[in-house]
UniProtKB/TrEMBL annotation:
Signal peptide: none annotated. CDD domains: BTB_POZ_ZBTB_KLHL-like (cd18186). Residues 230-397 form the TLDc domain. The chain crosses the membrane at residues 343-373. This is BTB domain-containing protein. Keywords: Membrane, Transmembrane, Transmembrane helix.
Length: 399
């Protein structure tokens, strides 16, 4: 980056795209251990007193960006496309410029999300080969686990390397049904064996025989979902979070959801009774409860922004105006309904939420009969009489 006093000639790029760049070894060594090692090696190429450094795998454009950072301490990425930013990240990792690695990863995550989603296979395989790309690795895995279709519906899914695919299949938080995993596994396997026809009825004995391998009778244990629930799924969490913050139903998604939902209590797991309930749920702050209506696909639930213990509750009500028209919510939804947001309504009555706890006192052999007074809340389709099959209480934790 200067013609005066230079002692290094870098040949960046390959074939017709090679460019000579004149730089100074002392500046390069001050910024990168890679260059220190390269120039101290007795096998380093020198000509006329100058080091000759060849990097055909780094384009002149990207090398100039790196050198600008080495000399001036600044870097401009906004004019680069996603593939070039990824190549730049690989280059700075190879050159051991550690201060740039995290910066470029953050830029990719914040400004090149579309590129990462459109090229999941290539990005995963690239990141998998570089131990320093932990931020990008975590981001890609988390997003693919939340939305597996990003990978499974991508054009190059079938070219995914086996170790990576196996790693994904072993994750408990892969948000996809087992039958879909099986279908995608078959699709991937067929792509690896071009000589096998898609139609199983046309397979011969050789197609279905794996030499020197015995079948296994023992099956691995089922995956443990990240959300500990038998009633709701991970896709419901952003919806509930949006309601909690009094936003539109689609305000949050799996990427920007600000809350974690920690299961505190489930009668079928923890035992029935008010004492057990309060042992698990008191003094935990805001909670949301979800219940399954017996002989129905409907779920009923509510949000309680206060502690469950009655002393704290009445103290809060007496000492402040925290109990407002919008702080409590009750909802009804179809367990399999994808348009649940249409039936969410706000409710004023904290009494309704507290009554639900009182009724747990008289719960006998897992069944509660709850009488819902229609004059306490707008009509959202909750049956006048119903029986609770099971319910869950989740602590709402701000991330």
């Amino acid at each position: 980056m200067g013609e005066i006093g230079y002692d290094v000639i870098i040949h960046a790029g390959e074939e017709q795209n090679v460019k000579k760049i004149h730089v100074h070894s002392n500046i390069l060594c001050a910024r990168s251990q890679y260059f220190c090692t390269a120039f101290s090696n007795e096998w380093a190429e020198k000509r006329d007193g100058k080091f000759i450094f060849r990097k055909p795998n780094i384009s002149p454009q990207l090398f100039n960006i790196i050198l600008r950072f080495i000399y001036c301490g600044n870097i401009e990425l906004k004019n680069l496309q996603g593939p070039d930013v990824l190549k730049l990240l690989i280059a700075v990792d190879e050159l051991s410029i550690h201060s740039l690695i995290s910066h470029i990863q953050e830029f990719l995550i914040e400004h090149q999300t579309e590129f990462l989603h459109q090229n999941p296979t290539e990005v995963l395989e690239t990141v998998y080969q570089h131990e320093t790309f932990t931020g990008l690795w975590d981001f890609c895995l988390e997003n693919i686990c939340k939305e597996p279709k990003i990978l499974f519906n991508s054009e190059n899914f079938s070219s995914l390397k086996a170790p990576l695919f196996e790693l994904l299949l072993k994750r408990d938080d892969l948000n996809i049904n087992e039958i879909e995993i099986w279908e995608n596994l078959l699709k991937w396997c067929f792509a690896q064996q071009n000589n096998i026809q898609d139609d199983p009825t046309k397979w011969n004995k050789e197609d279905i025989t794996i030499p020197n391998m015995k079948h296994k009778d023992n099956l691995p244990p089922p995956r443990k979902p990240k959300l500990d629930s038998t009633l709701i799924e991970s896709k419901h969490i952003p919806l509930f979070s949006s309601w909690i913050d009094k936003k539109e139903s689609c305000y949050y998604d799996s990427k920007n959801n600000p809350y974690e939902f920690k299961l505190l209590y489930r009668p079928s797991r923890n035992g029935v009774g008010a004492k057990t309930f309060h042992k698990n749920c008191d003094s935990k702050g805001a909670t949301i409860w979800v219940a399954k209506i017996k002989n129905s696909t409907q779920l009923i639930g509510g949000y309680n922004p206060l502690d469950w213990d009655m002393v704290s509750y009445w103290k809060t009500v007496a000492d402040s105006s925290y109990l407002t028209l919008q702080t409590q919510k009750i909802f009804l939804l179809q367990k399999q309904d994808t348009l649940m947001d249409k039936i969410m309504l706000f409710i004023v009555i904290m009494l309704m939420v507290q009554l639900w706890v009182i009724y747990t006192v008289i719960k006998i052999i897992g069944v509660i009969l709850i009488v819902v007074w229609e004059n306490l809340y707008p009509n959202i389709g909750i049956p006048e009489y119903f029986t609770i099959e099971d319910y869950e209480v989740f602590q709402i934790i701000k991330k």
